Amino acid sequence: MVALVPPSGRAARSDRRRGRGLPVPAPDADPLDVCVNTQTPLLQFTGVATAEGVPTRPPETARLSDLEEGVDYRFSPGGVTRMVYPLLKRLHTDRRVRSMHWVALNPLAPETVFADDLVLHNVRVAPERLAAYGNVKETIWGTVHGLRHPEGSDDLFWSDDFSEYAYYNRLTAEKMRTLDADEDFDLFYVHDFQQMAIGEMLHTLKPKLFRWHIPFDVADLPESWRPAMTNYLNSYDTVIVSTDRYLGQLKEFGYTGRAVKLYPYVDPSDYTTPPPEEVRATSARWGLAPEDVVALVVARMDPMKGQDRVVRALARLAPDHPQLRLLLVGNGSFSNAKGGLGLSKADRWRASLESLAQELGIADRVRFTGHVTQRELDVAYERSALTVLPSPREGFGLVVVESWLHGKPTIVSRRAGVAELVRPRRNGLLVDPDEDDDIAAKMDLVLADPEGLGARLGSAGRRTADACTIDAAAQAESLLFGEVVNGG
Predict the structure, then answer these.
(1) What is the pLDDT of residue 147?
(2) How far apart, in whole angstroms, are the C-alpha atoms of residue 442 and residue 435?
(3) Cβ atoms of 17 and 471 closer than 8 Å
């Protein structure tokens, strides 16, 4: 039997202060030391290739101030990192969090990166082991998103590939335990399904929070998965999900601990209105003429994001809207990046979309931007007449919140978590993602009345976005942290 590490952290520091005759801060005044874990790292490093094409081994430590963004590294795209980073910064600024350590999978990165008050710890896994881990990750992800269960998925948790998933989780847990021995964390905050086994592997009585970011529907999960998954989830003190529906499904699945709904969020200060000359120049680079009317989809290149639905809707609308163009913003996820798991799904899906547009005779109306900077993303929103989230299944859909922040009318899949916030014809329009005609009809409604319906949807959306901002998140999560750490 593995010995459990007794609680320390805040309680131990208070005991030490009492022992020295020092005053002990009130529970809500004592900043926390937090260890965060995600699969996707905050920063993706390019690595330097040798003549044989093999990346050189990165240094063991680095300081972010000595590196150049766009040359040595880039910030990872994706909702999880875009949520976690601003939250940590805000909680640190508000003196709710003192030390911040972030552990993530990052094969080409230095082992430790010092980024001001945040320390990044990167886990390295050999490519041959990452491939099997990636197979398990993709099977879980696809199953949760309602895809047909792959052959052998019922036995997933007993497969050879799963041993590599467990290995990655174990390696990460050991890194976190080693850090804890030095840093004496108050709280472990683990994000998403790739890491769900870590709570059990930490072997500590210290508080552990787990945030599930993707859809959670009991009907999509094989019954054979339930024993392992409930065991992993029940190793956490609190599990956070994004919607009321997921909350009910989590309890139905067999989770017996504390379950909390917290909306995902963005930092509104990250989004600005670019000047007209920048909008014109960037739009021209994307092949957009000033008179073009732009429908925008912001999503990584993945079949589960449903860009093909909007391509087909565009073909239906093309005869009546000669200036309508579709702008597809996004590239692959960390799993598709060369510095990540190296999967090629993004390239295959983009090629499929290009082929579909060609087949439908609208190739000249579809624009692909690939990865964009935040400034370019702001241009895309500013240039758009409407936005569409067409995903067949979506854990939440922060791009809808981004669209609302820019005051844009948005059309949302009924199967996205964010649909919980949409009030039809008041702050958005809902569609069945499997009905191309429905998507086309809702787009046509906005295009036919941009100053009336479109403006009203965008204006109301701005107000709705307040529920999904960093201000709301910092208040809710700092309160939750305090309750968990203090046994509330």
Answers:
(1) 73
(2) 11
(3) no
| CA 203 and chain centroid, separation | 27
Residue 263 neighbours by CB under 8 Å, 6+ apart = 242, 396, 421, 467, 468, 472, 473
Write the CATH number for 411. Answer: 3.40.50.2000
Helix, strand or coil for residue 100?
A: strand
Specify whether 107 is located in the same domain as 240: yes
4: in domain = no
**Which range marks the domain in which residue 277 is found?**
268-468
Tell whether 108 and 211 lie within a shared domain: yes
Residues 273-292: tens digit of each pLDDT:
999 999 999 999 999 999 99
Handedness of CA 425, 330, 87, 273 (dihedral sign): negative
Q: Other C-beta atoms within 10 Å of 69: how many?
A: 11
pLDDT in tens, 28-69: 558 999 999 999 999 998 765 444 555 566 789 999 999 998
- pLDDT at position 342, please? 52
Residues 73 and 187 in one domain: yes
Q: Domains in the chain: how many in total?
A: 2
- Both 212 and 112 in one domain: the answer is yes
Residue 22 placed within a domain:
no
Tell me, yes or no, whether 273 and 245 share the same domain.
no
At position 353, the amino acid (one-letter code) is: L
- The angle that helices 276-285 and 374-383 make with each other, rounded to 10 degrees, is 90
What was the pLDDT predicted at 488?
66
Beta strand extents in 186-342 (DSSP E only) = 187-191, 208-211, 238-241, 258-261, 293-298, 324-329
Please work out, in degrees rounded to the nearest 5, the angle formed at the alpha carbon of residue 90 by the alpha carbons of 214 and 272: 80
Count the neighbouring beta carbons within 10 Å of the beta carbon of residue 221.
Answer: 17
pLDDT in tens, 1-15: 233 333 444 555 444
394 secondary structure, DSSP code: B
Q: For position 58, what pLDDT does the model report?
A: 75
> Who contacts 76 (Cβ-Cβ below 8 Å, separation ≥6)?
40, 41, 42, 43, 44, 334
Q: Is residue 70 part of a domain?
A: yes
Q: What share of the chain is helix, strand, coil (3-state, %, to 5)?
A: 45, 20, 35
Residue 119 in any domain: the answer is: yes
Round to whole Å and give the CA distance between 84 and 82: 6
Query: What is the reported pTM?
Result: 0.85
Q: Are residues 132 and 169 in the same domain?
A: yes
How far apart CA 443 and CA 460 sit, in angstroms, is: 18
